[in-house]
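Preliminary data (for renewal application), S-adenosylmethionine complex.
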Amino acid sequence: MPKAKKSLGQNFLIDPAVTNQILQFINPDSKDIFLEIGPGKGAITKQLASRVDTTHAVEIDEELSYKLTKLEDKKNFYVHNKSILDFDPTEIFTNKVRVIGNLPYNLSTPIMFWGFKYLANFCDMHFMLQKEFGERLIAKNDNKDFGRITVITQYLTEPEYCFLISPESFSPKPKVESVFIKFNPIVGRSINDPIAIRLQEVTRIAFIHKRKMVGKSLEKIISTEKLDDLGIDRKCRPENISVEDYVKISGALI
Ligand code: SAM
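Predicted structure:
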């Protein structure tokens, strides 16, 4: 057995009960097209490929990719040996696909942004993530976990917390707990729309100084009077403003 590569975030799922829980949750329909990020040794992949018409798996590890090709006798199963960050789904899929991945935790943020970039091509996305990172994506305001990535994630998707997974379910055993989260894209929104572009700027400035009042942090781009007009308390800290209020601020700047 090849040694797990820590640099590639390889913690393989070994608990069939968790795989079943995942499959039960995503409830694949035979007509679904699935895209799996980081299939590894195929714990989720094997189940998926036997239940749906088409599965594409993107794995950066050459050795694991080669082993997965043995599954290719399953109809419509394809392995792409490359980084998901270099994978352009629009070159392959003409219909919307469902995305799933037990992610390499060191790449969670870039993979989330990769997902946002191609959101219009996805029916939904399901990711297994480090618990602390997942909590940032689903946080509500007035919470220490609420930050820039929370706002962008919840502008573009409705995240749905599914379940917690213990370190014992993986080999090698990670030091952290994991969560499984479903992201439902919000129709009509895109990372490139004018609000999303402003939102990234506004949240970048607001969260530079987490202890500073937003009226002060944002004064170069929006006046405190304008914030008052929008009904936003200028004395708030950045984590106290709701996603909707960040959207309101961004809308006022277009
Ligand atoms: N899905 C498998 C499972 O649940 O057992 C493996 C999950 S493991 C946490 C993460 C997987 O992502 C590894 O197989 C690793 O080689 C792969 N990986 C790491 N970086 C990647 C990248 N940039 N693109 C695609 N796959 C990557």
